[in-house]
Amino acid sequence: MTNLWEDLETGPNPPEEIYAVVECLKGERNKYEYDKDVPGVVLDRVLHSNVHYPSDYGFIPRSYYDDEDPFDVLVLVEDQTFPGCVIEARPVALMKMDDDGEQDDKVIAVPTEDPRYDHVEGLEDLSDQQLDEIEEFFETYKNLEAGKEVETLGWEDKDAAKDAIEHAMDLYDENFDSPRN
User: Fold this and answer.
1) pLDDT one-digit tens code per residue, 42-68
2) Which residues contact 137 (CB under 8 A, 6 or more apart)?
3) What is the pTM of this model?
4) CATH of the domain at 52
5) Binding site: which residues?
6) Binding-site positions for substrate
7) How many whole angstroms separate alpha carbon 64 and alpha carbon 176?
8) Full residue range of the structural domain in which residue 137 is found
9) How far is 86 from 7, CA to CA, in rounded Å?
10) 153 inside domain
């Protein structure tokens, strides 16, 4: 069975085009996580707060970030996909975030195969409402979990997102001894 974190490439042309492995679905409260030991998507928990994911959310394969997890990505979609779905996506922004004292930034991306997002090239193409909703979700989704503190730290452009993806790819290579070709 394929391990979507280790066996799948980071993307067809990273960091310009990446793969996003969906864990959590737009409009839902279930917090799924990919378990590489299963391998498969398992229910981690149901969000304690009465909020739902603003879009499909998951990770970038063959990446490892400063929080010692695969690098997080939120892919803007009109309709939810399914846990384990692989979406070819284009990074357009980076949301900086601190989760319990750890840097836990989020790449914001759009599907390369959805014409509704062809015009979205960067942060400036996202509406203030979209950005506010994403930020509000991540600021509040752990509010009712005991001892959890999350702080969003602002937005950066697609170049920052691509730099962060490169950093996550380098950390993966350093930690899991798998140099890129």
Assistant:
1) 999 999 999 999 999 999 999 999 999
2) 51, 52, 53, 54
3) 0.95
4) 3.90.80.10
5) 31, 45, 57, 67, 72, 104, 141
6) 31, 45, 57, 141
7) 9
8) 18-176
9) 13
10) yes
